[in-house]
Design a protein that fits this description.
By secondary structure, the protein is of the alpha/beta class. The protein has helices at residues 13-24, 31-40, 44-55, 61-72, 90-102, 117-125, 166-180, 182-188, 202-216; strands at residues 2-6, 28-30, 81-84, 109-114, 127-130, 137-139, 158-159, 193-197. The protein has a single domain (2-216), classed as Rossmann fold (3-Layer(aba) Sandwich). Helix 1 (13-24) packs across helix 9, helix 2 (31-40) crosses helix 3 (44-55) and helix 4 packs parallel to helix 5. The chain binds BIS(adenosine)-5'-pentaphosphate (AP5) and zinc ion. It is found in: Cytoplasm.
Amino acid sequence: MRIVLVGPPGAGKGTQATRLAEQLRVPHISTGDLFRANISQQTELGKLAKSYMDAGNLVPDEVTIAMAKERMEQPDAEGGFLLDGFPRNVSQAEALDELLTTESMKLDAVLDLEAPEEEVVKRIAGRRICRNDSAHVFHETYKKPAKDGVCDVCGGELYQRDDDSEDTVRKRLEVYHTQTEPIIDYYKAQGLVVTISAMGPVDEVTQRALEALKRED
Ligand code: AP5
Ligand code: ZN
């Protein structure tokens, strides 16, 4: 399956993408994670991306599309993929359509995760991530690690993302409403959007997502 996940920052896209990718046996492709890997490896792309990310803005389309395209062309993505955080505006969605058409492929669904603003703000404020693996995500109250500041999975150090400060989160939400939400209408016109609530326990949201995707199959 080829799926795009969309939803406000903190809705739980990364959390759900890890689980759905496992169930559906497709790679989880997160442009946010790819940028963060570049930042930690101090690449030129990482240096450029960091300045935009820290301000809560989108990284320019040209570099983002090139990076996403390169990742989607890896052999493990041939049979399908789950995109998390890409596309993030209409021109990225058009670029993705173009790429898929060239390869004679199409999307199966766009899964839209809905969560109210006060909830996503709480989720982001308490989020802690493992330095060793960005898929190891915790929360101060919702998913507490057994030992404060230490990853339950690998023992790595937990940290708070630079762009999770209150001011930056507010900016990211504004960018979501103005630039990303319009892609929902773009994909509605193609009949691809499946909207589910991202509220409730993580397992319940995963089940809800799998059932909604089955209906699209
Ligand atoms: P990105 O990394 O994509 O961040 P985001 O979209 O803002 O989403 P988040 O990672 O903040 O949240 P999430 O929805 O994945 O939530 P999570 O599962 O972690 O992008 C970051 C930046 O990179 C952008 O601002 C931009 O600058 C740049 N960028 C990336 N892609 C780009 C693109 N295509 N174009 C241009 N720029 C781009 O969950 C959050 C917390 O809640 C966790 O602590 C989790 O444990 C907890 N939680 C999850 N689910 C539940 C639940 N059901 N109940 C209780 N707690 C829960
Ligand atoms: Zn870890």
